[in-house]
Amino acid sequence: MKVGWLIYKQEDAVKNMSFIDWFIDECKQQELKLVLVYREHLDIGVYNGKLALHQNNLECKPPDFAVIRTIDPLLSQHLELMNVPVFNSSAVSMMCNHKANTHQALAQLQIPMVDTVFLKKDLLPSKPPLSLPVVMKAATGRGGNQVTMIHTQTAWEQFSKHTYADDVVVQACNVQLGKDVRVFVVGKTIVGAVLRESTTDFRANFTLGGTAKWYELNQVELTLVQSVVDYFDFGMVGIDFLFDYDGNLLFNEIEDVVGSRTLSEVSNVNIIKLYVAWIKERI
């Protein structure tokens, strides 16, 4: 039986233990062994000119596969170089966890999106590069965190003084605020979609108090999403879209370490069962 590692930071594992148990149980049912491993217990590097992996300060054998549920592209790449299949891959992790990289990649596919400007913290202009209001995001933020709407020149100046993100994206606001769609994907398959809405915040994230319900993608939307899915080698991701004023989808971001809480809330889809089957096929 192949043995894989499910890698979490300890703090995140405490908050996601039911998801972890679900993942481990689904693997067991499909004749894979999955072991929870804390990122804090792993050390990677080079010893005597060779790639090394240590667990609890002792050299260890790499797993047969790894599911990394923390944002750590360097760890993903290190394991891949040691011939460990990693889900999601380091390439997906690096692309998805930097919003500027993601927008660059999807622009090559001519996927519709709002106007977006990429900036460095130490090179922020004195005035916003787009007409106010704008949304400011830390390029490496996730879950709706480090996202701010800027309405005035004064607010822009204050943000410029106090932002601690090295890379920032600035986006136009000509969208339906407080509303988005998350599309869940496993491999090349669109598993389902969830409409998230908020009446109190311009962000629709479920974890920030938004509501969620099943969303049936129409054929035009399915074709759009599938063009993204076919281009990349995803494992399990969530692709988020905003709505323009006419109800058309505009790409927003891709969640690499995506949770499935909203999908489980609004459907009976067992996305982890599908993901484990996909992983088993790949390894």
What is the structure about, briefly put?
This protein is of the alpha+beta class. It contains nine helices and 16 strands.
Total domain modules? 3
- CA-based gyration radius: 20 Å
Helix content: 25-40%
Which second-level CATH architecture of the largest domain applies?
2-Layer Sandwich
Mean pLDDT level: 94
Low-confidence stretches: none
The spatial strand order of the largest sheet comes to: 14-13-12-15-16
Which structural category fits the helices and strands? alpha+beta
Broad CATH class of the largest domain: Alpha Beta
- Number of alpha- plus pi-helical segments: 9
> Which descriptor suits the 3D outline?
globular
The CATH topology annotation of the largest domain reads as D-amino Acid Aminotransferase, Chain A, domain 1
Largest sheet: 5 strands, antiparallel
Give the topology, please:
Elements: E1 3-8, H1 10-15, H2 17-29, E2 33-38, E3 42-47, E4 50-55, E5 58-59, E6 65-68, H3 73-81, E7 86-87, H4 90-96, H5 99-107, E8 116-120, E9 134-138, E10 147-150, H6 153-162, E11 167-172, E12 179-186, E13 189-197, E14 211-214, H7 219-231, E15 236-243, E16 249-255, H8 261-266, H9 271-282
Parallel strand pairs: 1-2, 1-6, 6-7
Antiparallel strand pairs: 3-4, 4-5, 8-11, 9-10, 9-11, 12-13, 12-15, 13-14, 15-16
Helix pairs in contact: 2-9, 3-4
